[in-house]
Request: fold
Amino acid sequence: MKKYLLSVTLIFLAAVVFAQDEHSSAYERGYLFGKGAAMLLLVVLLFGVYGDSLERRSNNQNHHIMNPFRVMITGLILLFPVLAFTQTSSDLASKIPGKWLLVKHILKEKGKTDDLLTSNEVYTYEFKSDNTYSSSFINKKNQTTTIISGKWKLINAATKLKLYDNTMTGDDHLVADKTFPIIRLTATEFVTKELLFGMDLLGTSYYKRQ
Reply:
């Protein structure tokens, strides 16, 4: 019995690892492992309470066929990473809608860390629950405002945010699609890497919910 529980636990952990991809953020990994571990603990507890009696009953019925209770438990454990991961994607998607203000844009180069965002620049995103969005870039020094609107969706198992069907206000041509890796996403903070409008250096952007 102990060897069986150890085996399915190792299978479960392997399934969790393979459910992620190389772009998974630390937040995504932690959330997935936490939910998966809680589900696994629940199964182990149920197994401890009911497992012995059900296994004895199954063994008494047929010694030559693999224990159906073990088959059921193994199947459930293998499904847990998928179920947990799907829920994670849903939870992340629910955190996107709202208005986000860029508070800093960090560039690390040659051992130095600089915030490239100045007081003259204001970057905002407003995401709506119908999967549309609008963004604005205000340059106070030049007294100009650039507005881009389009649609958004999560891709790559909710590890990236994609903006598509983008159009610049006052201009007829489409703006190229953009994809942002989700480094961290909470109810109040969104961290990603991007090339800001008006800048030519890729940096880490920190947005705060307004």
